[in-house]
């Protein structure tokens, strides 16, 4: 069994995580989802109802938290004390202590529910609450864990993140940048594998693009967060308008930057050129990939150090044969090859962004050439089935388990004792 920790279920911002879980299930793994908290103020994703049967649900406070605390306090006090020891590393940051205590309670709930189960590996994405919960669960259940990391941003203080990284049996980096970051935190190079964020390529039929009579569309898709750099795109749009370029920019997504972007649109006089559609389900986003002429990912690094890794929307756009203009931020250049599948420009450079958008809008041959090559790159390197195969290989390499062995009834690599077994062992 793989126990996959998610902060909540099913969040719209983590559809790529849930697609990975689904693909691992299709590959034969028994994947259970451990939810840490209820879905609250987080847009809900649709289309993942098939995963609900695998979810161990959560409420803010419940009896399983208390029962888990009592159970591990009496049965495995040393394991629990190690968890509290990790929390004590943040005593100088009281706000972090409160968050970590809650994550420990949520982890105790899951640990109590899954004690006695045959857990081959605990999985988590991001160096945030999910990673901390995976570390807690690993200490409580004495099971291995692994993490997938996308960016160089971490939520907790460095000493805690370093312990989480060093304790993982193996690490998956979404980009070369993420791998370097993990190594800087103490992760051993031989235990870090680059496995790119991926999509189901078959969901995006091939299409050769031709000129049409509609107004050219420049598309951006993603959360309206500072790190996405959409304010830079609006300044680039203002430059394009002053140059007399015909275009319409469509932004799809919600987030904390929405009011700022709407104010900037008004300030720059772009109400006629820029449309903010808000959040849309994937079924309504996908047609825009085919209607658009250019996809733009203007990511930046925020003053707090937050940045993109390799956004899934970039892969989706390339799968739809859409040429991409991205920045040299995070892992974007690992998918968008300069002059091959699109253009790479410096972050925070409206002029360079406007130049490349204009070049693509004026060159149908480049749009077709980049789009076709982008599709080929996605088929070779960013197919979700290939990612699931790579993860299966890694899990087998570090745990000795496999879906086929599970189906044949292989003895578990790591089996967590039930309360009765523990009591009998201690009495002996």
List the helices and strands and how they pair.
Elements: E1 2-6, H1 15-26, E2 31-35, E3 55-56, H2 63-75, H3 77-88, H4 94-114, E4 121-125, H5 129-141, E5 145-149, H6 158-167, E6 170-173, H7 176-184, E7 192-194, E8 217-221, H8 230-242, E9 248-252, H9 258-267, E10 274-278, H10 282-291, E11 294-297, H11 312-319, E12 324-327, E13 342-345, H12 350-362, H13 364-381, H14 384-399, H15 403-407, H16 419-427
Parallel strand pairs: 1-2, 1-4, 2-3, 4-5, 5-6, 6-7, 8-9, 8-11, 9-10, 11-12, 12-13
CATH topology of the largest domain: Rossmann fold
Ranges where pLDDT stays below 50 over 5 or more residues in a row are 411-428
Rg over CA atoms, rounded to whole Å, is 23 Å
Number of helices: 16
In whole angstroms, the N-to-C terminal distance is: 29 Å
List the helices and strands in order.
EHEEHHHEHEHEHEEHEHEHEHEEHHHHH
Write down the overall geometry: globular
CATH class of the largest domain: Alpha Beta
Share of residues in strands: 5-15%
Q: Main sheet, how many strands, which sense, barrel? A: 7 strands, parallel
Biggest sheet: strand arrangement: 3-2-1-4-5-6-7
- The overall pLDDT average reads 91
Count of beta strands: 13
Number of self-contained structural domains: 2
Q: Structural class, from helix and strand content?
A: alpha/beta
The CATH fourth-level homologous superfamily of the largest domain: Glycogen Phosphorylase B
User: How helical, in percent, are the residues?
Assistant: 40-55%
CATH architecture heading of the largest domain? 3-Layer(aba) Sandwich
């Amino acid at each position: 069994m793989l126990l996959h920790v998610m902060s909540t279920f099913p969040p719209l911002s983590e559809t790529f995580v849930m697609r990975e879980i689904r693909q691992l299930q299709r590959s034969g793994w028994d994947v259970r989802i451990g939810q840490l908290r209820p879905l609250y103020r987080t847009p809900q994703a649709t289309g993942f109802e098939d995963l609900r049967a695998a979810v161990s649900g959560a409420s803010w406070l419940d009896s399983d938290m208390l029962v888990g605390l009592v159970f591990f306090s009496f049965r495995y006090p040393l394991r629990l004390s190690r968890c509290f020891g990790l929390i004590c590393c943040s005593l100088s940051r009281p706000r972090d202590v409160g968050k970590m205590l809650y994550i420990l309670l949520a982890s105790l709930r899951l640990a109590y529910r899954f004690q006695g189960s045959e857990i081959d590996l605990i999985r988590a994405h991001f160096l945030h609450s999910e990673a901390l919960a995976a570390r807690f669960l690993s200490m409580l259940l004495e099971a291995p864990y692994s993490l997938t990391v996308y960016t160089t941003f971490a939520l907790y203080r460095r000493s805690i993140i370093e312990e989480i990284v060093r304790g993982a049996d193996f690490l998956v980096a979404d980009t070369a940048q993420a791998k370097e970051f993990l190594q800087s935190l103490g992760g051993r190079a031989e235990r870090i594998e680059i496995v790119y964020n991926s999509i189901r390529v078959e969901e995006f039929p091939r299409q050769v693009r031709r000129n049409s009579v509609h107004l050219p569309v420049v598309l951006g898709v993603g959360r309206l967060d500072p790190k996405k750099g959409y304010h830079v795109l609006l300044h680039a749009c203002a430059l394009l308008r002053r140059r007399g370029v015909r275009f319409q920019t469509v932004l799809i997504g919600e987030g904390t930057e929405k009011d700022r972007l709407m104010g900037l649109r008004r300030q720059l006089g772009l109400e006629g050129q820029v449309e903010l559609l808000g959040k849309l389900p994937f079924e309504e986003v996908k047609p825009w990939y085919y209607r658009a002429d250019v996809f733009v990912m203007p990511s930046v690094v925020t003053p707090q150090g937050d940045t993109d890794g390799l956004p899934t929307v970039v892969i989706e756009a390339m799968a739809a044969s859409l040429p991409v203009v991205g920045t040299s931020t995070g892992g974007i250049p690992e998918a968008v090859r300069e002059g091959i599948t699109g253009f790479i420009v410096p972050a925070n450079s409206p002029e360079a962004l406007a130049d490349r958008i204009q070049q693509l809008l004026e060159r149908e041959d480049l749009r077709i050439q980049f789009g076709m090559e982008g599709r080929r790159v996605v088929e070779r390197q960013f197919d979700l089935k290939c990612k699931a195969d790579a993860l299966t290989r890694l899990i087998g390499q570090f745990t000795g388990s496999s879906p086929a062995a599970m189906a044949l009834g292989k003895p578990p690599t790591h089996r967590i004792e039930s309360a009765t077994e523990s009591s009998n062992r201690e009495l002996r």
